[in-house]
Amino acid sequence: MTSLRRTAITIASCGFAVLIGSAAHAASFDCAKASTPDEIAICANPQLSNLDVQMATLYSVRMQLPMLMGARGAAQDEQRTWLATRTQCGANVACLQAAYASRIQQFNQTITAAMQDYCVKVGIC
What we know:
Blueprint: H1 3-24, H2 37-44, H3 46-64, H4 71-89, H5 93-122
């Protein structure tokens, strides 16, 4: 199985995991260890918790996409920067929702572009 095909299967599987994970109302991290205001707010709010799971799943998918040398580190740096932005929201639910919406949109665009590229490369679209 080619690397791109495995990536496509992984992305499809993770998309399904987002749907399953969303129903669980559980953050992507251990809420028993939540210590910052943003983490506590996420654990206390099912909608934020669902957004956190969705974002974490999309991040995992993003990291499975083939990348040029150096891009993996850049993607990890972007995520650390985003987490710092999330932390600045504190317990402000509206701020956290906006931060998640923006990050999820970024991941969706990146993944969609990668899948389109894959589709063209294998000649199925």
